[in-house]
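Structure ticket #2291
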Amino acid sequence: MLFTRDLGEPLTGLVKKIDDYAKAHEGLKAWMVVVADQQENEAKVKELAQQKELKLPIVFFAEGPTSDTATKLLKLNPEVKYTIVAYKEKKVTANFALNEITDETAPKVTEAAEAIAPK
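Resolution: structure written out below.
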């Protein structure tokens, strides 16, 4: 599960890698929650999904980006652009809180996904 407050590069490349990994591993699910203004970003999200041929669900956080709910209920750090969570059987197995996506991010996320992928 990927929470994002930013839709620019290099997020798009990472989302594509996560989506491809999930498609290649039956039973593994991935989705993205956009914690940003829906009116301002809906067109960007549609373009991203079409351009990258994404199959993973992409939703907007209904409370909006300034809601305390994102911080309190979901335990998202309001200072962090990207939060990636891997979990299995309702237990978090990996958590990445990032302000920057680097070349090392995708392999670390893939490794976390590998640990929870159905065998």
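Closing remark: Strands lie at 2-4, 32-34, 58-60, 82-88, 91-98.
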